[in-house]
Amino acid sequence: MLHVGNEKVPVCSGVDRRSFLQAGAAGMAGLSLPAMSRLEAAGFVDTSKAKIKNCITLFLVGSPGHLDTWDMKPEAPDDIRGKFKPIHTNVPGIDICEHFPKMAKMMDKVALIRSLHHKTGASHENGQRWMMTGHDFTADNPKPFAGSVISRLYGPKSNLPASIILPVKIGNTGTSTPHGQKAAFAGTAHEPFFLGADPARSDFQVANLKAPAGQTEFRINARRNLLTELDELQRRTETKASKQRETAYSRAFNLLTSPETKRAFDLDDEPDKLRDRYGRNTLGQSCLMARRMIERGSRFVTVNHFDTVFNIACWDMHANGSSLNNTYLDYENILCPQFDLAFTALVEDLEQRGLLDETVIAVVSEFGRTPKLNARGGRDHYPSAWTNFICGGNIKGGQVVGSTDKIGAAPHDRPIQPPQLLASIYHGMGINLETTMMPGPGSRPIHLIEAEPIRELF
Amino acid sequence: MDQVFEGTPKAEIRLEGRKAIRGDVSNDWGSKLQWQISRDGKVIATVAARIESAYEHPEKTPGKYEIVLQLFKYINYKKDAKGEYTESKFIDISNKVGYTV
Hints:
The complex is a heterodimer. Chain A has 2 domains: about 50-205 and about 265-455, Alkaline Phosphatase, subunit A (3-Layer(aba) Sandwich), CATH 3.40.720.10; about 210-265. Chain A has 13 helices and 18 strands. Chain A is an alpha/beta fold. Chain B has one domain (about 15-100). In chain B, about 0% of the residues lie in helices and about 45% in strands. Chain B has strands spanning about 15, 20, 35-40, 40-50, 55, 65-75, 90, 95-100. In chain B, the strands form 2 sheets. In chain B, strands 3, 4, 6, 7 and 8 form a 5-stranded antiparallel sheet that branches. A 3-stranded antiparallel sheet of chain B has the order 1-2-5, with no helix packed on it. In chain B, about 30% of the residues are buried.
């Protein structure tokens, strides 16, 4: 039994009371360097073994059809195999869609996971919760976003937040249930920072870095000083919540007033040629921004490729003739080319800067799409099988983990569930998943995730 | 948040024999890039241009050939009853080069 306050709670093997309480206290405050050292000493994380220090997640909201992208079935009947053709990659035996020609040239760096599936529902939000937190849950029992977990465990490296989401938060994707991009019981100090604007636009300004109307830097600093004094008074009656708010305020002030931070968001610093290489579009410039954030100290950057699935060209290929009228035309002319350019630019750029070895890139989606084309030539939601992929860090590229059956309807071998992918990222970041715990609801210690890493990836 | 594409993408193309060679695309929107080949004013082929920077059209039917580089311009996702875009379309982003067979 472990005691947290006066409460007795069960604890899993390998964690003694003293080390958990030390770690918990450190986590509450947002980790300082000494706190990080205590965590390491307690065996919760081992940064010496952590090859992956950062993670960039490209979240393909809407979800590409696996049969049209990274798990093609050219031998299947017409109404299953779809319109596109596979091309060879630089790894013999691994073929992908013809509209990813640049990615095909770097398949040796990429590990495809072709047997992902989940069973809790076919809404976008079910999949978002799975992929962003490793759990499905209801609004009254929220689980923390992976970026918040990493923020909580490792803390910030610089003035930039440890966890950033670009370009904007996910909005309406069908139901009014959680998207899984909130800190939940990881604490308000570890909420991800949302950029809140499109970095591809010429009038781009970071919405969340703009001082409120009428607030000068002088007034902001005056407010900070006042809050510092109030914090001093409050320290005597400090609670967990007040401590977290203090950290959040400090972070907000640092963001608002630091020239270094503001410059981090300025893409005009980048050569035009590099901006073109990423693609002058929302995804491309967000990926470039993600690299800048990692380079300047963020640990976990998430790029939401689309904030909605309605009335835009996105991966949600229902071809319904109405507000969800995405078709093969959108895949061929916009989505696949933009992704191919942005993803490969990101990999190349990180590699050239020596950052790829310590940064994992995870490309995830909510689900796959129905193996059989619908009456209008589209595909609908399908959580029973899909493909995502991962590269960078110490991930073994040039491989396929798992497979689906002949029509891509179900995992054929090595079925993988979403938490295993997150567990793999955590594992790669040096976190001992058996012993590392964090205070859950009511400060009860819980494991970060109930899943094993995908061993083939390492 | 729908995407807004700004600026004007541009590229220079030139001929070496019958092979068209392109430079980098500036202000590249990142959408589909293609060669458009016309003969005697009529479009006879479009070929993906993103991965290779050169293209030689294999047809030798006599006529006056013209080649231009095009980029897809996304305005919105709207399509007609046949599933064709109503506003988004390919636009020329380069000079035109030509030869006669």
